[in-house]
């Protein structure tokens, strides 16, 4: 499905605490400035990084007592924070505070790119048909999103994840997830792809199921024609901007998009590096520039 409306989105990376020595609840932390400066109000969609896949068990969502034996689900990646807080604590806090600051915000989770087996392991040893494995994961994914009151699932598509996932595997997963999302008449779930490269992408599954594609245009090797040339609908493309490390300003991103692409959607990497004050200020500026405010 093509999203025709304008959007300003961003990723947030839960592993990181800035400034050094703070945690989520520190008054001067990068997480509190998102609230204090109404940065969440500048977002249509927030992507929480990074989730991974795990086999269902007693403590997973959904638990093994309700999910098919041996099936796979999502779990937020692990990291330790000051005062014994976890990434799951941070995810809960971000969801709570983002929705309080901006009741209209949509929140998704982004799948980690850093392990080639993250998606391929869903298909197991072949004892369960591959299509059934994909459908089980899709059902578990919906249960996970429901549990945390989330709105979407994003896949960070780059090496090594893209190298370790076959075309057939990704296509089955996208088709199964898209079908499971569309089956829900009571809620809109977003399925998005955030690629740096086109390795093992199959256009039919993407065009039929993905809502928009956050091109990592800041990578230095990501070009729209690489994706459109294999049949992916260019109307799905979104502008992946990068305010981290002063890579670009909001004004530069908007000008570049106007001159070269004309996409409706911007998604920013990211809101909370050690340069978070700049990143968050640019996110606010991006909102004003895209929507003609101020």
Q: CATH superfamily name?
A: Glycosidases
Q: How would you sum up the major sheet? A: 8 strands, parallel, barrel
Strand coverage percent? 15-25%
Nearest-integer average pLDDT:
98
First-residue to last-residue Cα separation: 31 Å
Unreliable residue runs? none
- CATH architectural group: Alpha-Beta Barrel
The CATH class: Alpha Beta
How do the helices and strands follow one another from N- to C-terminus? EHEEEEHEHEHHEHEHEHEH
Q: In which order are the strands of the major sheet placed? A: 1-2-6-7-8-9-10-11
Structure summary, number of beta strands: 11
Helicity level: 25-40%
Overall outline: globular
Number of helical segments with 4 or more residues: 9
Oligomeric state of shown chains: single chain
The structural class is alpha/beta
Protein traits:
single chain, 294 residues, alpha/beta, TIM Barrel, two-stranded antiparallel sheet
3D architecture notes:
The protein is of the alpha/beta class and 294 residues long. The chain has one domain (7-291): TIM Barrel (Alpha-Beta Barrel). The protein has helices at 30-36, 87-101, 130-147, 161-164, 167-182, 203-209, 224-228, 250-260, 276-291; strands at residues 7-13, 45-55, 72-76, 80-81, 85-86, 106-111, 152-157, 190-195, 212-215, 237-242, 265-269. Strand 6 (106-111), helix 3 and strand 7 (152-157) form a beta-alpha-beta unit. Helix 5 runs parallel beside helix 6. The longest helix is centred in the middle third of the chain and has 18 residues, at 130-147. The mean pLDDT is 98.
